[in-house]
């Protein structure tokens, strides 16, 4: 049976951080983005407003900033090895994230079959954000369904990896889920729970059958 592995980015593939945080660090805007992240986590703003305000904050953003943020981010170890193994098994792997598309899509370089983020204009910005392209938690499920159609699989063939409330809808839609360094509420609903910094260990849980906890 062919499987489709669906990975969140912020807090999941990236340990203790998020793409907007890493990008803003390059611009000296960490405090401003931290405040914006708090508003989002407290649900005082939703994904569209969050994206619009990030876009305004990043008026000086360049491709060099984006690359430096990507290269310097605190990624889990073993990402490329896991995705190579998935490919060798004839399965598929994709990233679905609410973070900006121009950052998320860099993970195609590491072997993901697909990478979907909130659609931002190209960097440096010359156009506004089209909020219709900003992903929501429910939108993650819609992207997953499109990927299922693309790869010839169904939801029953999917494994989701995530860490926060934005992953709840996708976890509920698929049979196997791995909570990676996750908030307690999401961990309680997951098939497997992992704490640590090695994606190879989290991926290994999906071969173990019933619910498993692992990590350091």
Describe this protein's structure.
This protein has one domain (4-17, 75-215): HAD superfamily/HAD-like (Rossmann fold, 3-Layer(aba) Sandwich), CATH 3.40.50. The protein contains 10 helices and 7 strands. 41% of the residues lie in helices and 17% in strands. Helix 6 links the parallel strand 2 and strand 3. The protein is α/β, with parallel strands linked by helices and 216 residues long. Helix 1 (19-27) packs across helix 4. The relative contact order is 0.17. It has a 7-stranded parallel beta sheet, with helices on both faces.
Q: Structural class, from helix and strand content?
A: alpha/beta
- Neighbour order of strands in the largest sheet: 3-2-1-4-5-6-7
**Any idea what the CATH superfamily is called?**
HAD superfamily/HAD-like
Enter the CATH topology name: Rossmann fold
Structure summary, number of beta strands = 7
Which range best describes the helical content: under 10%, 10-25%, 25-40%, 40-55%, 55-70% or over 70%?
Answer: 40-55%
What's the shape?
globular
**Tally of alpha and pi helices:** 10
Largest sheet: 7 strands, parallel
CATH architecture: 3-Layer(aba) Sandwich
Estimate nothing, just give the exact number of structural domains.
1
Mean pLDDT: 95
Can you identify the CATH class?
Alpha Beta
> Nearest-angstrom radius of gyration?
16 Å
Which blocks of ≥5 consecutive residues have pLDDT under 50?
A: none
Multimerization status: single chain
Strand content: 15-25%
Report the span from N to C terminus: 31 Å
* N-to-C series of helices and strands: EHHHHHEHEHEHEHEHE
